[in-house]
Design goal:
This protein is mainly α. It is 55% helix and 0% strand. It has five helices and no strands. The longest helix has 16 residues, at 13-28.
């Protein structure tokens, strides 16, 4: 039997990076997931999926989350080695 994969269900590498850096930023501020949920209005489950690289948040959601932790969204999205190419 052939199985089809919905590409929406495969997290983009930048979404995985965003989630990991969001989690680092949240923890650096000593914020709990519950506190971040309170700042953004998203569900705890969705925040967990984002932080653990299992979701592809929209740009709007990434901006909302990055604003909530006081970090520019580009810092959470751009790989550390991006500046060394060229």
């Amino acid at each position: 039997m052939v199985k089809f994969v919905d590409l929406e269900d495969i997290p983009h590498p930048r979404a995985v990076l965003f989630g990991a850096r969001l989690k680092e930023s949240r923890k650096a501020l000593k914020l709990t997931q519950t506190q971040l949920v309170g700042r953004t209005g998203i569900t705890p489950g969705y925040l967990s999926e984002i932080e653990n690289g299992r979701a592809n948040p929209t740009l709007e959601m990434m901006v909302k989350l990055s604003d909530a932790v006081g970090v520019d969204v580009s810092i959470l999205l751009i790989p550390a080695d991006a500046g060394s190419k060229g």
